[in-house]
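Researcher: Re-running this chain for the archive, since the previous output was lost when a drive failed. Same request as before.
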Amino acid sequence: MKNNPGSERKWLSVLAKLFESLDENLLRQILEKGKILEFNTGETIFKQGDTEKNFFIVLSGRFRAVAETNNKMKVLGDITEGEPVGEFALFTGAARSATVYAMRPSVTLELSESEYLDLVGLQPAFAQKMTSIILNRLKSNSLQKKINDAPKNIALINLQESHEITPWTELIEKEFNKTNVAYQKLDYDAYKNEDPNSFFQKLESSDDMKFFVCSSEHSEWSKQCYAYSDLIVIAAEFNSDCEIHALEKELELYKDNLLHKKVYLLLLHPENAPNPVNTIRWLEKRNIDLHIHFRKDHANDVARFCRIITNRAIGLVLSGGGAKGYAHIGAVKALMESGIQIDFLGGTSAGALYGLTMVSQDFQFEKINFYAKDSAGKRLTSNDYTVPVISLLTGKKLKSYLQKMLGEICLEDLWISSYCITTNFSTASLSMHETGLVYQKVLASIAIPGVFPPVIIDGELHVDGGVMDNLPIQSMYKYPVSHIIALSLSSTTQRKFEIRETPSNKELFWDKLLKRKKYRMPGLSSLIINSLTLNSVQKQEQHKANVSVYLELNLKGFGFLDDSKWKQIIQSGYDQMKDYLNTLNSTEKFW
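Model: Regenerated structure tokens:
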């Protein structure tokens, strides 16, 4: 295999991407010095505790690092083409911290300590490159690692042979051609007269993304595709039989083990399909990583699917902030007018309320503005006071309105995969909700302790998500996104007061009544929510550096529970986002 010219060219290309600026002669020396090793699925490069100092470079395929701690196995991540493996042992002499398994047939280049030192002697720049690679890996966050782990080989399995999938794959192919993604679509006809091993080995010599289209009609082809793929996409007509099919069982797609391949469920809808209902019936029997709703000939759905399966999706994260959350509507409208499409959405408190309202209306802003105006007119937080045993407000008006607006829509039924955050009071932990009734999860996410009553979900009390995470950026890392847009309604800047002591209630009352504006103290609701989210603000500071767009909206002068200025707040969000986008240079406009 080492003498195969196609393979050698491919391997040199992999090394060139890893060791940028090193000349081709040195790259050839690296390849000649090292040892080419082939691994079958499930074989290990090395095991946790091993003490050898050699390291490896993945030339093709995919590996998974798994560590055992306290008698529990934990997946640390996947290692893909062009990444080094085991380099820390070479430099530190420490034992291997994990076992590394081949996820599919793969090839590596092994370099021993002596071979590494020989190469450094020939070319000191090699040592500098290795040091730079290690430092970058140590600095990279979970999101950056996920981008590097993008699948190269994808198996699309059609569950219903009676349902022709070609129109869908043609849409996908057109989208990839439009966006200049190197792409090959392969089906049984391309494979039937070939030797299986040589067929897939030849494909590895190409940098193109491979899209294997298969079904139960040719089960052997489907098995081979499964073995050589990094991602499995199960395609099914949404309104068809949701029972587990024979091919799913045969391939053991949902077997829970450490080498489990990611499985996405692609649910196909007619072009003008109504909102999905009862999506949960597809999910409750399958152990999948993500489900995707896909309307035929719907341009945004086609583009979204292609971004998702290549780990290039865009995630939008919205923060809490009471009535200031109306600004999210204006800001998102400005984003979309600039050509940005949202693939995943997550929010806390007001971010959950306004974000999931937008998603439930499929970003039709005429409908969204109607609900904004209508809800503000009904003054949902006024005249709702109760005996303050567990809260100042009953929350009944708000609950009734959300039920009327959102009905029985569940999170999994939304066209765009979305989540909201609550604080689980019973377990003192953060909860991320991706399924269940939207109105119930939103009601829990906005349940400010002391203001609104807690919400019971599965026998546990849940309160406002902002207590644990008011801008849930980290939760977005679980999705295949390459860019995150985060909108904050709460300032992380310090605010100092010129007065020496807190004025009395009487002084504050007369100051407000006479409009002197002498004290400028935060109101009761602001004090409550800001005090509750202090810890969350620190988390926000840590993660905002990892997003592509971070905008802290200035909404000074708008009350936390005052929705009478909803129109001005929406306009302010719109104007600030427009202004922000206009300040970006061309390289920052990733879309």
